[in-house]
């Protein structure tokens, strides 16, 4: 029932051979995802995220900045602080050690969320269509 937020295979940071310069969990002057302190079975203290809530900002060496959004409603359980000291793992191991955050959706909403997800094959077909339409 938990959701692990990672960079998609099609994300520009994973496609273009860019180098990640920095990752910042400071979303605004008053909000840092690093201040998220979760405790207990009911996950008290967890920041609540909407689908459009920014999780972090990633800067690449060419000056581009990418804001990574939650894309899911739920409680922020954990952010991956390891990527702050070693940003390369975001690109080297995006679906394992290079994850960005862990989000726990509301129980009632979790079934609707998983039903709306694409299978690996469907995702690859979407990417192929996108690639064909841009060439």
TrEMBL record:
Descriptive protein name: Protein Abitram
Source species: Fregata magnificens (Magnificent frigatebird)
Upper classification of the organism: Eukaryota, Metazoa, Chordata, Craniata, Vertebrata
Highest taxon listed in the record's lineage: Eukaryota
Matching Pfam families: GCV_H
GO BP annotation list: dendrite morphogenesis; regulation of actin filament polymerization; regulation of filopodium assembly
Recorded family membership: Belongs to the ABITRAM family.
Cellular localisation: Cell projection, Dendrite; Cell projection, Growth cone; Cell projection, Lamellipodium; Nucleus speckle
CC per GO annotation: dendrite; filopodium tip; growth cone; lamellipodium; nuclear speck
UniProt keywords, alphabetically: Cell projection, Nucleus
GO molecular function, one term: actin monomer binding
